[in-house]
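Honest question from a wet-lab person: if I give you the sequences of every part of a complex, can you actually get the arrangement of the whole thing, not just the pieces? Trying it with mine:
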Amino acid sequence: MEKHDKQSDHAPVHISSYRDHWSTLVTLLLLTVVTVVISVFGANLAALSVATALLIATVKVIVVAYYFMHLKYDKKLYTWLVLLVAILFLAFTVLTAIEYFNR
Amino acid sequence: MEHLSGFVLPNSGHNRDDEASKMGMWLFLFTELLLFGGLFIVYMVYRMLNHEAFLLSSFELNVTLGTINTVVLLVSSMTIAMAITAIQKGDKKTSVRLLLTTLGLSLVFLVIKYFEWSAKIHHGLFPGMDFYNNLPKGEALFFFLYFIMTGLHALHIIIGAVLIGVVVHRTRQNKVNQEKYALTENAGLYWHLVDLIWIYLFPLFYLIH
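Yes, you can. This is the full assembly:
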């Protein structure tokens, strides 16, 4: 856990290393391979494969936001705002789905 | 006024706030997320109503090209993140090279997308074409959403590519440098958003069967 002085204009800037970026890319590529393999070879598990694909996509999105978009090292405010928007969208989605299935 | 000649306002010439600039970009990204979010909800509802049709139609899409484009965007996300690392280290040359690589990858994405769309249009699947008009409702809705959503996404790729071009230009002019690289960071954030949206578009359209 980095503790940066949030009030200071000269808070130390975190510079992600090239190596870290490579590791992030490898993680994302592996997750992509897993999604495609499950989808192409697990065709008879239709429902499961869609849920899995969305779950893996969400993991990928979190990895991109956390490392590439630098949320890990930015002020926590950004993370909270992203979560707020995510919850808002999820609420729209879930409410719409519940409404659909109850008619 | 002689006595004021050496006087410099504490903030003169430095009216910039990188943190506020970044916050502005994030707020804009939130509006983008909700724009695509609305389309994803439309997709969800139409898919629940036309389950079989959506599954069948998804077989029409080329998983190989979709996967290649996913890899292209992931790699381009890394190169632009590295361009930020480079400029932070004061290595402008590497930063420009990485930005140009990102730009090149965005063009690769668009060329692949062009071939995909051409194949679909060749089969008459574009909304309004004769073949499309005679499709059952569910299949037509799938291709309607496919063109709308990947089209809007491709538009974002084009805007992102232009933005990256601007960053390259400004870095070469030294207007973006080791002390002042908020533009590179914001272009990066925008580019990652375009990547994030594709991360969901890809399984939902190409892999649902």
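Two things worth pointing out. Residues 75-103 of chain A form one domain. The interface with chain B takes residues 13, 15-18, 21-22, 24-25, 28-29, 32, 35-36, 39-40, 43, 46, 49-50, 53-54, 56-57, 60-61, 64-65, 67-70, 74-75, 78, 81-82, 85, 88-89, 92-93, 96-97, 100 of chain A (CB under 8 Å).
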